[in-house]
Design a protein that fits this description.
The protein has 140 residues and is mainly α. The protein has seven helices and no strands. It starts with a helix and ends in an 11-residue tail after the last helix.
């Protein structure tokens, strides 16, 4: 599942000219991997899991709203990591921060789209309930 998340990150960030132009080509795959890893970690460790898959999907669908706790929690740690690990300038990390809510919404859309079986609500429900080793198993 991590590969699917990585591809989603890569597709979303490559299609955003503000982000794509700010990340040096030699660092793009490593940056996309870091964003995907951080996204996975943020979803796995977030308190929205208490609401089950429905709570998580609702939070993801509302990621663009101001003050969304999942989006804000993920942005803070991610931006610091990208700046320090990849020496990205504030313009690059700012562009990625701006793209993150859309990325979270796209994940939720895939999970709720009956025509897209790459990530399903059932997968999330099983993972949240621990039947597949927790939400982290979605991304392995």
């Amino acid at each position: 599942m991590f590969d699917k998340i990585f591809e989603l990150v890569k597709e979303q960030l490559n299609s955003d000219p503000q982000v794509a132009s700010q990340i040096p080509d030699a660092k793009k795959d490593a940056v996309y991997n870091e964003v995907a890893t951080h996204l996975t970690s943020g979803l796995t460790n977030h308190e929205a899991l208490e609401g089950g898959a429905g709570g998580l999907l609702s939070m993801l669908q509302n990621a663009i709203s101001s003050g969304n706790p999942l989006s804000e929690a993920m942005q803070g740690g991610l931006l610091n990591t990208l700046a320090s690990k990849f020496d990205l300038p504030p313009s690059a990390t700012g562009a990625i921060a701006g793209a993150l809510p859309g990325l979270l919404q796209k994940f939720a859309s895939k999970a709720t789209d009956p025509g897209d079986n790459s990530i399903t609500p059932d997968d999330i429900t099983k993972a949240v309930s621990g039947k597949q080793g927790g939400l982290g198993s979605l991304f392995n």
